[in-house]
Fold LysR family transcriptional regulator.
Amino acid sequence: MVNLEWYRTFKAIYKTGTLTGAADSLFISQPGVSLHLSSLEAYVGYKLFDRTGRKMIPTERGKVLFNAVSEPISKLEDVEKNFQKSTEKLTPTISVGMCFETFQTTLEQYVSTLPFNLIISFGEYPEMLDQLDKGILDLIITPKKGVSPNIEHEAFSSEQMILVGGKDIDTESFHKILKTKGIEHAEEWLKQEKWYGTTGDMEHLFQFWIMNFGHKPNFRPNYIVPNLNSIIRCLKGGTGLAVIPNFLCKNEIENGEVKLIWEGEKKLENTLYFGCRKKTNYQSEIDHIKGLFRKVMGKNNHIAHL
């Protein structure tokens, strides 16, 4: 059985000429638009649009279908407007991409207060940049800039990669070896400890090791857990080491639950950026999200005020 929303989506694509334009006009995600279109094409049994670059060009059968359904759909939309409450407004929906740990530490606590609908997406940074450029995401939080001319990046904070450990780690022994015997012996000391890593991303550990020891670590973590916040909770048990962004464990270090072991001979820092398309229908909603991030992460960071 056909879903009438498929026809509404079909009409929006026909009118706007793009999947992104249809998604914006209907206040749904671009994947939702693609799903409606593919479902309708499967139902009617033929292609309704030719995809040329980003433009959606209606096929001859697509034009015939549009002429057949356009007026009835418009009448149904008029009926809907007449019967819905006069005070009711369409609530916009924005899609935001970031890493899981950043969401938990920053935005999660404010989700229930947002005056608009929100879809959170987790993924790798290159994938999120591509989805932002295609209109699937409206805003991303990323330490890496893209090259698309359609995307603008705004620096708002920074993160430093630090070596942290459980409260029972003998930090005095480590720093004594580092001071008296040098960096090579310090590396051997670190390798004797138990290490934590994550299933998806070991880049923090690799970058930290390369910057301070000149090569990638030649060992594998003893414990692989789902994410960086899991590592922090595990370190509260008293032992183990990990390299993680400082903002994720700031409170635990201040409370003595986790120890700051070493910032490295050379500090490893990443700038965090807001990434969004230069043209958007959701500027006020995006600004609202940006404000929440600055509130949480920008208090002690000069980048947030640039």
Q: What stands out?
A: The longest strand covers residues 151-166. The chain has a mean pLDDT of 88. The chain is about 45% helix and 20% strand. Residues 60-83 form the longest helix (24 residues).
